[in-house]
Amino acid sequence: MKKIFHHSLVSWEKIDSERYLIFCRGESWMIWPRSKKYKKCCNGRPISDFYIGEIEDFYQRFITKRIFLPENSGKVWNPNEEDILFEMIQHSLTITDVARELERSCGEVAMKLVTLNGISTAIPVDIKMQYDVSMLNIIKNLN
Question: 22, 64, 88, 133: which could join 93 in a potential S-S bond, CB 3.0 to 4.6 Å?
Answer without folding.
Answer: 88
